[in-house]
Amino acid sequence: MGEKLALGLDLGGTNITGALATSEGKIAAITRRKTQASRGSGPVIEDMAEMVEHLIASQGISRDDVIGLGVGAPGPLSHRDGIIFKMANLPGWTNVRLRRALLERTGLPTILDNDANVAAFGEFWMGAGKGVRQMVALTLGTGIGSGVIIDGEILRGHFENAAELGHLIVHARGRPCTCGQRGCLEQYASAANLTRHCVELIREGRESSLSAILEKGGELGAKEVVEAAKEGDPLAAEVWDEACYFLAIGCINVQHSFNPQMLVLSGGMSKAGDFLLSRVRRYAREHGWKLCDDQPEISISVLGDDAGVLGAAGIAWAARNSGVFG
Ligand SMILES: [Zn+2]
Known about the structure:
Layout: E1 5-11, E2 15-21, E3 27-34, H1 41-58, E4 66-73, E5 77-78, E6 83-84, H2 98-106, E7 110-114, H3 115-126, E8 135-140, E9 144-150, E10 153-154, H4 186-189, H5 191-203, H6 211-215, H7 222-230, H8 234-258, E11 262-266, H9 274-287, E12 297-300, H10 307-321
Parallel strand pairs: 1-4, 4-7, 8-11, 11-12
Antiparallel strand pairs: 1-2, 2-3, 5-6, 8-9, 9-10
């Protein structure tokens, strides 16, 4: 019998990723398949169980060599009860007992958590936050997902809704958010809103090199906005700068809430690298408090898309080490 491994599954609207990882976070095997979400929860769960079987078989090991299964999934969900309440982008997932279903099909002790928490745990365990004990991760995508790690553990809160930092209010009476609030961080600093804001301004008659892309019926994404901003397009530069400013305001609020050592930025917008980081750091310094010099380090994810699946294996190891798996 070889080294023990943990299984991680990252369920997304587009892909399901599965991996086997050692206790040191080394990936022994990784696999990916399309979610085919329109089929509803049953067939997707069958696919997940099948991926578990394939991964175990691919390494020529037995179920006894696997300490357990960690699963990251979009929510809202209950980690405590292992239930998915609903998924915004996947139909047919109302009150699904995912943890029990996977335990029954795979025979492995299973733990479920929110995908953003799991990705944050991945960065904490093996990524940008390796060696850090207090860390916050923000994923800048369609919205802003986030996870908070306190003393090496995921913060969940009493109602299991802690760390919804995309809905920090950074602009009171600002833009309405899909959540019912106004002025949420994700309305200002997510990749989707970056492009939406550019399109709005162009439709209002502002000139921009980006209008050529729209006229051709092309997709306008964060990448195009960043490229145009770098080339000096005034509108793209203005919108990018505003996103960086509001992100910095969000980071300041995060600092006051959790006092982390590190803030890790990931997702589409983080691919801008230093073009993002230098501005966010500057605005955070300029607008942050001046009462002490200790500021969290703001950095970029090093695991990228693998943070979720590695974090899923990581929460399985953490569950095992803290006795949750018995
Ligand atoms: Zn909101």
